[in-house]
Amino acid sequence: MAISLASLKKTGTARPPRIVLYGTHGIGKSTFAAQAPNPVFIQTEEGLDAVSATAFPLCQSFDDILECIGVLASESHDFQTVVLDSADWAEQLIQKRVAQDNNVKTIDAIGYGRGYKAAADYWRQLLDGFDHLRSDKNMQVILLAHSQVRRFDDPLADPYDRYQLDLHHGSASLVSEWCDIMMFANQQYSTVKSDVGFNQKVTRAVGTGNRVLYTQERPGWQAKSRWPLPDTLPLDYSKFAEALGNSMAQIVGE
User: Fold this and answer.
1) Is the pLDDT of residue 187 over 80?
2) pLDDT of 195 strictly over 70
3) Rounded Cα gap, residues 29 and 22, in angstroms
4) Whose CA is closest to 41, among 9, 6, 89, 97?
5) Angle at the Cα of 113 from the Cα atoms of 116 and 59, rounded to 5 degrees
6) Which of 244, 243, 189, 178 is nearest to 220 (CA)?
7) In sequence order, what are the residues at sequence separation of 6 or more whose Cβ sits closer than 8 angstroms to the Cβ of residue 107?
8) Extended beta strands in 77-175, E state
């Protein structure tokens, strides 16, 4: 490749984002994704019974997921968003495929971490497929996932627990690096102190009933955004899209 000053280009384009939305069970992740522009769901778990959406048949294998992506890549359609529901169940299909490749019952039977390294290669194949849909079909990508509470060894502080993707740590790293926006969905809480007598007080969490998106990294959860977003947004796609559109317009318009 010949490099010269003529090859320079200005960055900052409003391409469709690659979004990871994870959160607690039943918080409304699928409902959020169903509000996106003309979405189509690739299902790896059954969770759309209460959501009106267009979806491929339930994927029973990793190859089924790739086939769904291939159909969207090769056939003419007007879908604007592809949704994987969910990433952690897709990981189960990937691990099953790795075990089959090695003629063992589970991925853990493959020694020295080789099974999880092979799983990472399948993850890259999957993410490359979504990138193709984004580049060639101009589709937004949303990966839904469940959350887990896991210890985080902060080199600058004592270890603490926080919400993270419910994926193997190697897979979680890949997905986290790949996406443009990672948001944590949960109920909004406040804390109150109660007097329990004998000059002692306890702190209790009180739910507000509001479901929110956390867009920035905090000690309690993992999140990120390559676009400047408010720290907290309602769990509503229209509110998220408005904030993202305003942010993109400011940067691209500069």
Assistant:
1) yes
2) no
3) 7
4) 89
5) 20
6) 189
7) 95, 98, 99, 115, 116, 119
8) 81-85, 140-152, 160-165
Pairing between strand 181-197 and 54-55?
A: unpaired
Nearest CA among 90, 88, 95 for reference residue 114: 95
> What pLDDT is recorded for position 164?
96
Q: How far apart are CA 209 and CA 150, in angstroms?
A: 25
Residue with structure tokens 């384009």?
A: 13
Tokens for 218? 């905090």
Confidence class for position 254, pLDDT limits 50, 70, 90: low
Residue 194 has pLDDT above 70, yes or no: no
Token code pair at residue 64: 């089924």
pLDDT at position 154 over 60: yes
Nearest to 187 by CA among 169, 213, 225: 213
Question: Distances in Å between the alpha carbon of 225 and those of 30, 131, 143, 167, 185?
Answer: 20, 18, 15, 20, 14
| C-beta separation of 12 from 252 below 8 A | yes
The model's pTM is 0.90
Contact 41, 47 (CB under 8 A): no
What beta strand segments (E) does the chain contain?
18-23, 39-43, 54-55, 81-85, 140-152, 160-165, 181-197, 200-214, 224-225, 232-234
Q: Let me know: does 21 contact 163? Beta carbons within 8 Å.
A: no
28-42, 168-182, 190-204, 205-219: segment of lowest average pLDDT: 190-204
> Residues for the chain: how many in total?
254
More confident residue, 81 or 154: 81
